[in-house]
Design a protein that fits this description.
Elements (H helix, E strand, L loop, with lengths): L6 E9 L9 E6 L4 E8 L4 H22 L15 H23 L7 E10 L2 E7 L3 E6 L2 E4 L6 H8 L4 H5 L20 E5 L6 E5 L1 H4 L4 H10 L4 H14 L6 E10 L3
Antiparallel strand pairs: 1-10, 2-3, 3-4, 4-5, 5-8, 6-7, 6-9, 9-10
Helix pairs in contact: 1-2, 6-7
Length: about 260
């Protein structure tokens, strides 16, 4: 099934940061499929980089294969409560998870590797947002910022159980512990939602190398100041993360929704 015609601008950039020796993040912008993906790998000896690339490649391949043959048999049953396109995105992420999990089981050097993922697929009706882990999607609309994903992290689980002060959050000892990621188990639960964007909305997909060092008000200000040029906005977001220490790899992709054609 070919991608449905939509009008949007997209740009992505990644950076190793100030503390790491190699970049375990991967991203892809696939205009033919109206698809944007950010994956933040984890696992020592560069296996995080392998996992994040595997996730991006698996999703790309699945979307390209189903575009050519929409009647291709899927390895997972469709959820009848969701649309075809939602099921397509979720199935692609589940396939990516299985590929990473099986590689980690098969290859001792990849044991324990995994990756977060956020993916946005544009269709005529709007945007489908899917994610696993603590990489995020933000929406910027009319001078306001809203996080569109919920972190699958130990810190977020604590926040749902009890209210923590800003100081307690800053000093939380297991801030980087992910409770859900691709490759951890044979089967993964994928969170997905359909968003109805307005013309002019900007969506930011990012790894925690950006959302950690750069707080939401700063992220909003930088995008608003550079919203006419997504490339400049992405570069300045990454620069700000590095100015604030750059403790991790930094990746961000920006989407400006211009609307479905008439």
């Amino acid at each position: 099934m070919p991608a449905q015609p939509v009008r949007m601008e997209m740009f992505g950039e990644t950076n190793v940061g100030m503390k790491r020796t190699h970049n375990e993040d991967n991203y892809a912008i696939i205009p033919d499929e109206n698809l944007v993906i950010v994956a933040d790998g984890m696992g020592g000896h560069a296996s995080g980089e392998v996992a994040s690339k595997m996730a991006v490649d698996a999703l790309r391949e699945f979307f390209e294969a189903t575009a050519k043959d929409p009647d291709a048999t899927w390895p997972y049953k469709m959820d009848k409560a969701r649309s075809y396109e939602e099921n397509r995105l979720i199935t692609g992420v589940k396939l990516a998870n299985l590929r990473i999990f099986e590689s980690a089981q098969r290859e001792p050097r990849y044991r324990g590797m995994g990756t977060t993922i956020v993916v946005v697929a544009a269709v005529r009706e709007g945007l489908i947002i899917g994610h696993v882990g603590d990489s995020r999607v933000y929406r910027i609309r009319e001078g306001k910022i809203e996080q569109m994903t919920e972190d699958h992290s130990l810190l977020n689980d604590y926040l749902k159980m009890r209210k923590l002060t800003e100081e307690e959050i800053a000093n939380f000892p297991h801030k980087n512990v992910i409770v859900r990621a691709l490759g951890m188990k044979e089967i993964v639960k994928v969170d997905a939602r359909v968003e109805q964007p307005h013309p002019g909305d900007i969506f930011v997909l990012c790894s925690d190398g950006l959302s950690g060092p750069v707080n939401d008000p700063d992220l909003l200000r930088i995008v608003e100041e550079n919203k006419s040029d997504l490339k400049t906005a992405a570069s300045r977001l990454i620069a700000r993360a590095n100015e604030n220490g750059g403790p991790d790899n930094i990746t961000c992709c920006l989407i400006r929704w211009l609307g479905a054609p008439n």
